[in-house]
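Reviewer 2 asked us to include a model.

Predict the structure of this chain.
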Amino acid sequence: MIMWCEKLPNGKVRYVERYVHPITEKEGKVSVTMNKDTAANRKNAQISLQAKIDAKMVELSAPTKKAEITISELAKLYLKEQSKNVKKSTHGRNAIAINKIVEYLGGDSIVKKLNAVYVKKHLYVGAKKPCTKNERLKRFKAMIRWGYEEELIADISWLSKLKPFEDKEKKEKLEDKFLESDELRLVLENMEIPKWKFLTELTALSGMRFGEAIALETSDIHFDEEYINVDKNRDYIHDVTTTPKTDDSTREIPMQGQLKDLCKRIKIFMNQERMRTGCRTTLFMSNEDGEYLEYAAYNKYLKAVTEKVIGKKATTHFMRHTHVALMAEHGVPLEVISRRLGHSDSKITREIYFHVTEKLKQKDKEMVRDIKII
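Predicted model (structure tokens):
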């Protein structure tokens, strides 16, 4: 393109040059103003205009100009973008994992020079269990694919050479992720703290996350319409109440008879406690001061009781998985269960569902195997 000069009303001159947009191929302009039109100013203007055009090219086609981006730079951009779209708690966990991956691979490593052999050698340092290796691989692949989608990386075909590790331990321990109905009854019978017993039963019968359950307000329990409104989640790590984990997590959970009866008993119990303590709060369940129930105290109690009674150290998330198993036992379709959980798609939900339904099929076979009808 050719630079030209325009005289301004104030006596100064504007030097202008055109450039072509790298994507749309439309013309754009850049300009610089000088006090007067001289040979020296023309030369300086050309240098300045070229610098502006170069800067525009980088801005407009930044992805193609990032050929030498390092893994450290990619990680910073990825986490910055993630911070806009995920919960603070989720972002915090992801940041820890990604920063570790950067450490293993070397922050100065050029992304375009990465290959499957190098990654296999460095990504799994110190990781012995397949589940640990697979978690790192999952995080790494997500970051690299994001970089590809943002055109920060030109080629990621080698990524398909990185395969997940077979996790036999995970397959063998699927039953240790939830409670059978008889196990749940036994656990509830042995819980001596009423509030923790209520919370265990509530999460098992509804499928709510711990944070969703303790964030419920009394107005969220609709007895006449028979549903629970879930639109809040208590982030106990950052001590804030936010919206639920995902868009699908904001939902209405239909109350079956047992769940409705339980909610009535909880309401009566909490009203009696609040009359005794003089505490006022909008929370459906709370401590005696009207504040949110504590995760650490409940989780510790739940682990202790379940280990003693059934030999499993159950965590709060067990109850969510238990809900899947209980619903599957009663023939509730997977898509209905998923809606109750607020899941658009969950691998563990499917695994537990099909595990339970397969066991039921096996029982059916055993039941009719030796029957002589004629």
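The chain is about 55% helix and 10% strand. The first strand starts at residue 4 and ends at 7. We have added this to the supplementary material.
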